[in-house]
Amino acid sequence: MAEIVLGLATSHTPMLTLPAELWPSYARNDERNRELAFPPHGLVMPYQEGLVDNAPDLRAKFRGSEPYRAQAEACQRALDELSTTLRAVKPDITVIIGDDQDEWFFEDNMPALSVFWGESAPLIPRTVPPGTRDADVIEAIRRG
Question: Which one, of 133, 139, 144, 142, lies nearest residue 24 by Cα?
Answer without folding.
Answer: 133
